[in-house]
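Researcher: Next sequence.
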Amino acid sequence: MNGEDVIKLMRRDAHPHVHNLRSKIVNTSERIELKSQRLVLRDYKADLSEIDAIFEFTGDALVATHSSWGPLTRDETLDWLNDAVRVQNTEPRAGFELGVCLAATGRIVGNASLHIRNLKNNEAEIGYTLNRAEWGQGYGTEVAKTLLAFAFNKLYLHRVYASTAPSNIASHRVLEKLGMTREGLMRENVLQRGHWRDSFIYSILDKEFLDSSSLKL
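Model: Next structure:
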């Protein structure tokens, strides 16, 4: 399955209540594979054989600087990977933890996530993590754009949001470049390694994404 045929649904303009169809949307027997110019976002292998590549970034304290999680031990990473694989078989599927792979080599260099947080309102949260060896190459923007295309063109969601630490300037730039609006500040909503921190919330609506030619893959 590729980014063009991940989900086969009627077009949104063909049904006046398309948002009420919600997420009876993913055939869980099919693997998710989303392609962009340089990357492939895909389901992890069920045999957990990719643990070493994943642990390169989950176990890196620098990668976890702005995150509420980590750095993780190898065993903690394995537990997380088990959960990511298990979610692949839930129905309806509302969670997607996807390996970020270089299209040229297939090597896993990060994780991309999309979780439907409110099924009734067709709302999801996105996030991503990259191996620090790949920072500074525009992959964060490419990952986030691919997730938004999946959310709006394939899952037919209405609103997508992301949260980020106020100190994570690079993430702010990525989200703003994609046309996401900073809605406000959530005060001390994240317990990060024993200390409370704030979060900025960014969001984008389906009509904003679909009307923006600069966001097409």
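Model: Residues 16-215 form a domain with the Aminopeptidase fold (CATH 3.40.630.30). Confidence is low (pLDDT under 50) at residues 1-24.
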